[in-house]
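Form P-L/3: holo structure prediction, ligand magnesium ion.
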Amino acid sequence: MTNKGQIIARHLTVGYENFDLLKNVDFEINEHDIFVIMGGSGCGKSTLLRVLTGLKEPKEGEILIDGKNFTKSPPTEKEKLMRRFGILYQGGALFSSMTLAENIALPLQQYSDYGAAEIADLVSFKLSLVGLSGYEDYYPSEISGGMKKRAGLARALALDPEIVYFDEPSAGLDPISSRLLDDLILDLNQSLGTTIVLVTHELNSIFAIGNNSIFLDPKTQSIMARGDPKDLLKNPPTEQVRLFLTRGETKHG
Amino acid sequence: MSKEQKALFSYHVNQTELELIFQGRFVCFQDSSSLSRVIEIVQKGQIKRVVVQTKEVIGWDSSLAIILYRVKKETERAHIPIIWKERTNGLKRLVELAFSVDRKPPVLSKKTSSFLEKIGETGFLVYQSCCAGFSFLKKVMFSLGRLLSGRAVIRKVDFLFALEDAGYKAVPIVSLISFMVGLILAFVGAVQLKVFGAHIYVASLVTIGMTRIMGAIMIGVIMAGRTGASYAAAIGTMQVNEEIDALKTMGVSISDFLVLPRVLALTLTMPFLTVLADFMGMIGGGAVGVFMLGISPQEYWKLSIEALSLSHFLVGVFHGLVFGIVIALCGCYYGVHSGRDANSVGVSTTKAVVSAIVWMIVMTGLITFACEVIGV
Ligand SMILES: Nc1ncnc2c1ncn2[C@@H]1O[C@H](COP(=O)(O)OP(=O)(O)OP(=O)(O)O)[C@@H](O)[C@H]1O
Ligand SMILES: [Mg+2]
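OUTPUT (holo model):
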């Protein structure tokens, strides 16, 4: 396959009108990575995610997806690239006037050549992947917060995206559901080869599934550490990273 | 190369074994006829096991996964094992994942009711919403009482903000519309009155029409669409964001904190806007009188002032005051009683505007009747 899901950020400056959150940073997300973006609250993780997904323009620099310049491409090209993303928003972002089945069918009807029967099968398949089989005819207002999130994931997966972005997927989930979500992410990554970009504070998830990461530092507006989170835990480059990865445990002798 | 790329789905039956063979690249693959035949074979019940051969698959997406998902659904039902022959076991993993959580949703009871039941239900619903409306009104009255006795939690900023929004920010649109209404009134009147050579009565037509009722009605409709709708949408969105819940659990009264500032603001500004509308309408009429009928401005002004009576003017302003209360109450009521999703906010905004206009008409009828009785 030519499309792989590799993301390269070059000289990226991210911020809002009168302040920068990240200045001139470079990082690379390899195909099939489960890439974790870490950092304290308010350091700009969600903002970085919005830039990566094209919802917000970077102040400077560019993002390359499989070698194509995502930031500088014209709107139609950009939309085509964006169709290869799946995004799970913090609250699920389901359309409230549609049933779950209609929510998931929407991107399929818009952008794929599948017939009605295949779409119905795909909908039921994606819903059962996230453990919601049989919920086709429910409206978002009739299911719980965690279920909304999973349904949002089913919609994000509708078009077999090469890259799936998650913003705090396990926030608001019970430990077992969040564990199941981790397994699902891992399964997607290994069976479909999907690249996963993940913003999360959940240490268990970070160590269980992450194989690459960056740690944002708001003070210097740069990346404080990068690499496999398990290695970072073994040899933390700075005290701050160590505190983050050990939940602020104090060092003993 | 291209021959190898093409997706091939074939199957054959070996006594009690069904073998499914997949070769090539499965992207957006569709073959519902083969799939339904395979499912038929499984359903016949002579098969003891299914072999899935995917060693020659080069690439795949969900289109292949759903074929196997459908097959697995049938085999699960018939308790037939599937033997997977894959290079990597990505496909097996994904398909089995779909069966890993088997929680059936609670059955939604969608009851059907007969025609008579429907009438009864509708009647009951109307009765309920009337009760809800009255209790809402009662709450607002109590809030007002609390405010007057200085015990209500009401943020001055909120009130001032509402006042600004319902007041001077509405001035441009109110001026424009009432100028146009005055213009239209005069124009339509002039065409008819000219026939009798009575066109100088245009001035009194416009003055009486605008001050007694048209000014207030036009402003009412504008403000229902502008401010009433925004109240419903803003409070409805707070409902969606669970802000209303937060206020309730903090023990802050919704009617004090959200409803009262808005109702007061609109009630205060509407009479002034009505006066503005009367004035602008008269100017609009004057434009027709001066430029179309050739009446001199001084003359037109004199005729207008002669037609102006304090009772008409006060009745008009009173209409404005009542409309202000009606619009704000409808907007806030539907906002507070909105559902918890984007769609419901839209529905309650619509209801707010429509009901405000209906109640305005009802109130106009009542006031007109009352005026008749007391003879103004
Ligand atoms: N629309 C905005 N305009 C201006 N500043 C903003 C805006 N949104 C966020 N910020 C600021 O940008 C910073 C980063 O916000 P962001 O939401 O990216 O943080 P985060 O790392 O995702 O935090 P958390 O882990 O709490 O979700 C914060 O300091 C915030 O105040
Ligand atoms: Mg965030």
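COMMENT: The pocket of adenosine-5'-triphosphate (ligand 1) is lined by residues A 16, 21, 39, 41-47 (CB under 6 Å).
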